[in-house]
TrEMBL record:
This is TonB-dependent receptor. Residues 75-195 form the TonB-dependent receptor plug domain. Belongs to the TonB-dependent receptor family. CDD domains: ligand_gated_channel (cd01347). PANTHER family: PTHR47234, SECRETIN_TONB SHORT N-TERMINAL DOMAIN-CONTAINING PROTEIN. It comes from the Bacteria. It is a multi-pass membrane protein. It is found in: Cell outer membrane. InterPro entries: Beta-barrel_TonB, Beta-barrel_TonB_sf, Plug_dom, Plug_dom_sf, TonB-dep_rcpt-like, TonB_box_CS. The keyword DNA repair does not apply. Pfam families: Plug, TonB_dep_Rec_b-barrel.
Length: 811
């Protein structure tokens, strides 16, 4: 297996240069250390940060823990681009989902307006236009487990199973640190596009409650979210922070009329109905000044229902004389628990922890019928247990770090090293016998025992990190990591970051790193068959007999190279600007690929235990798998600016602007075992043109005594669809598609808050107050006339305006 690593010559050259120049440097004062240290040291860090922050937005001088193990690194002085999103900013969006809140605040984050199929209720994010699998999610610095459901519907997220971040209560979150830089050398696989680190609250007292209720401009989609957070002091030796949350969301329906009968019987282009309850705790207890026990945990349960395509009346299901719309239901249980000890010994800070996380999803189908069963027996149930999945992850970490002070460096040398062991397991469980009998129920074919599987792997890793300040204004960071997967082999990754502050106004920074992303167990073993009224789509495990028939080859890891260069600018006392350009290349990128239709697809599905309805045209049946399909190159630019305007007696306004420019190109497309291209033009478009080329967020928040007003404009750049023909000679073509440009769109978000009492605050707000929507696609490309929007485009959605009232209580 090919190993990718940073050239040693580059590392050695940088080290030698730093040694030569630091002979003229002076020693810095002893710097405070982070972790389980005496309170006076921690107070020193806070005092220093507070003094520096006198003329800057508070979040710019926040001490960060993501992308560095330097105990006094701040946002403003970071060698890598990082954004801190506070709980107050999240609250001002009016969203009860963390995913939706972050996409309103961070332009490099995007999401699909709708995921049809198994992943309909999974809330994942894409960073810099890459797959959700390329963004690592941490909770208080610990790796979070991924969802058990693969996104198998077509579009940019196809083939991914990222972390469902909405299984973490928003009320438990203190802030979110978003590292927009490759960090595989720091954290391992998946940190290709960047890292989202969710930092939990650690309150010792007080109770906070929030209630948010709202709905759509169209009169549907009612949402209600209630949460509570409480902090408790543990006898002066620590804290226990407890959070609980409940959310209800009703359906939205945006379908147009069914071309078969002129009725509005389709209801699946819209949000599903779901209920979600989550609870979490975060605690720490200090046995000694240099020994602490800590633990945090989350549990979430979700139940949801989503419509499937409408069926018209037929002799195959006489029990539904007026036709019917199948409904898919999802019951999901997700939990994670972390337990650890940390302390200080012989000047070294150490941290030993174990984290176990699991996501279990059970899928059922009701209000439907199995035509094969009805034809054979004269009866059929109307509800079926289709399948179930469980994805677990057990991670064990041990790390140490220390700061060394030398007379030849202008600052301390920060050294960190550690080891990690992880055990991954993914199980697929079959449905009931009626769900996979014959052609299966209308809507979704159940999984049979032939499709069931149990898979697992071990992952071991070791890392070392070094940060230093050879000169007063020059910072250099190194990181190296070795990682071994029992199913994907080993790799060596490295990262070098540097920053030079020319003066207090201007600084340059840059990074070069390589990365590694192993295939997920879901990508290796996933299978399913979705059946619409006039077509069927199947996905087969890459190592199965059916997949091999249509050219599948075993999956290999992705290898990446990342480059970034940028600058920070502070031209005025309360103005901070950062600009960072980046390039990310991915070799052997894993995508849904190898699409076959017709007789080959039908035979491949049969070999894997799926029976296709004989009423479907053969060219309307497709089968594919997940493959190392292509090499890609993503280039972009991130720009952020913050400024504070003070009006003396009239309060102040915090202005902010954030821009992301992003474009992905295919540099190579592979071929399958039969010599055919692994990607057609539509699949290529999913990763090159379905994400907006740019996204701009700008606005401000005015605070005057008890009144607060926040106004932000979001501009989504154009994105280009590749639409399937459903009528005419090109109907269901696997090679010819319609190019359709979704023009740039704007949305306006507004919130007005008033502190009625010291304990009570009210907010009236709206997201997309102008009720803007994406463009409708031409009628000839609407499936059965009913799907009037391209729900795969990750631009402005089609649900329209959302308006809400929020109440906050603090005791």
């Amino acid at each position: 297996m090919k190993k990718v690593s940073i050239p040693l010559s580059a590392l050695l050259l940088t080290c030698v240069a730093s040694q030569l120049v630091c002979l003229q440097a002076y020693a810095a004062d002893p710097a405070p250390e982070k972790g389980s240290v005496p309170a006076r040291k921690a107070a020193g860090i806070r005092a220093a940060s507070k003094q520096k922050a006198a003329s800057l937005p508070k979040e710019d001088e926040t001490v960060i823990v993501t992308g560095t193990r330097d105990p006094h690194q701040t946002v403003r002085k970071s060698a890598s681009p990082i954004q801190v999103v506070t709980s107050a900013e999240i609250s001002r969006t009016g969203q009860s989902d963390l995913r939706d809140a972050l996409t309103q605040l961070t332009p490099s984050l995007t999401r699909a307006p709708l995921l049809i199929g198994n992943a309909n209720m999974v809330d994942v994010l894409r960073l810099r236009g890459l797959s959700p699998n390329h963004t690592l999610i941490l909770v208080d610095g610990k790796r979070r487990h991924a969802t058990s459901v693969l996104s198998n519907n077509s579009g940019p997220q196809q083939g991914s199973n990222g972390v469902d971040i909405d299984m973490i209560p928003i009320s438990a979150i203190d802030h979110v640190e978003i590292l927009q830089d490759g960090a595989a050398a720091l954290y391992g696989s998946d940190a290709v596009a960047g890292v989202i680190n969710i930092i939990l609250k650690h309150r010792k007292s007080g109770i906070t409650m929030q209630a948010t209720n709202g709905g759509r401009y169209a009169g549907d989609g009612f949402q209600s979210g209630e949460s509570i957070n409480a902090g408790f002091d543990l006898m002066g030796r620590g804290f226990f922070d407890l959070s609980a949350e409940y959310k209800y969301q009703d359906h939205t329906i945006r379908n147009s009329a069914d071309s078969r009968n002129g009725k509005y019987d389709f209801k699946d282009e819209g949000d599903p109905r779901q209920q979600r309850g989550t609870i979490s705790y975060n605690m720490q207890y200090d046995f000694l000044p240099d020994l602490s026990l800590y633990s945090f945990s989350t549990y979430g349960h979700r139940y949801g229902e989503s419509y499937q395509d409408a069926r018209v009346a037929s002799s195959e299901w006489p029990m539904y004389p007026n036709g019917f719309s199948p409904k898919e239901s999802v019951s999901e249980d997700d939990y994670s628990v972390t337990l650890g000890l940390k302390g200080e010994k012989f000047g070294w800070n150490w941290d030993l922890s174990t984290t176990y996380g699991s996501d279990h999803t059970s899928m059922d189908l009701f209000n439907t019928v199995n035509p094969s069963l009805y034809a054979a027996t004269g009866a059929s149930p109307t509800s079926f247990h289709e399948m179930a999945f469980t994805n677990t992850q057990w991670t064990n970490d041990f790390g140490i770090h220390r700061s060394f002070h030398t007379p030849i460096f202008a600052g301390p040398i920060n050294l960190a090293m550690g080891a990690q062991y992880r055990y991954d397991e993914f199980d697929i469980m079959s449905g009931d016998a009626n769900s996979y009998y014959g052609t299966g129920p209308q809507g979704l074919h159940g999984l049979s025992p032939q499709n069931a599987s149990e898979s697992n792997r071990d992952v071991t890793a070791g890392y070392v990190e070094l940060s230093m300040r050879p000169l007063k204004n020059w910072q250099v960071d190194f990181a190296g990591r070795y990682e071994y997967y029992t199913d994907a082999g080993d790799t060596k990754t490295g990262k070098v970051s540097t920053r030079y502050d020319f003066n207090k106004y201007f600084a340059l920074r840059g990074t070069i790193s390589n990365g590694f992303s192993a295939p997920s167990l879901l990508q290796e073993h996933w299978s399913n068959l979705s059946v619409a009224p006039t077509y069927a789509t199947g996905y087969l495990p890459v190592n199965s007999a059916g997949a091999r028939l249509i050219g599948a080859k075993p999956l290999h890891p992705e290898h990446t190279m990342s480059y970034s260069a940028g600058f920070t600018l502070d031209p005025l006392p309360r103005l901070h600007i950062s600009v960072d350009a980046y390039q990310i290349t991915i070799k052997n990128r894993i995508l849904a690929a190898g699409v076959y239709n017709g007789a080959n697809a039908i035979e491949a599905l049969r070999l894997d235990g799926f029976t296709v309805p004989s009423t479907l045209q053969s060219n309307a049946v497709t089968a594919s798998y997940y493959a190392n399909a292509a090499d890609t190159r993503t280039r972009g630019l991130d720009v952020t600016a913050r400024y504070e305007t003070r009006f003396r007696d009239w309060g102040k306004i915090d202005w902010d602007v954030a821009l992301n420019l992003n474009e992905t190109d295919l540099t190579h497309t592979g071929k399958d075992g039969n010599g055919n291209s692994l990607l057609n033009s539509q699949q290529a478009a999913y990763i090159t043109s379905y994400t907006p080329k740019n996204k701009l967020i700008f606005g401000g928040t005015w605070q005057y005594k008890k009144l607060g007003v926040s106004v932000h404009e979001v501009r989504y750049g154009h994105a280009t669809s590749s639409l399937t023909y459903y009528e005419g000679p090109l109907a269901y073509s696997n090679t010819d598609f319609m190019r359709y440009v979704n023009k740039a769109r704007f949305e306006t978000n507004l919130a007005v808050s008033y502190q009625v009492l010291p304990q009570l605050g009210l907010t009236l707000g709206g997201n997309n107050v102008g009720n803007a929507k994406q463009r409708r696609i031409p009628k000839e490309f609407r499936y059965l006339g009913a799907f009037q929007y391209d729900y795969q485009i990750e631009q402005l959605g089609y649900n329209g305006g959302y308006y809400y009232l929020q109440a906050n209580l603090n005791f």
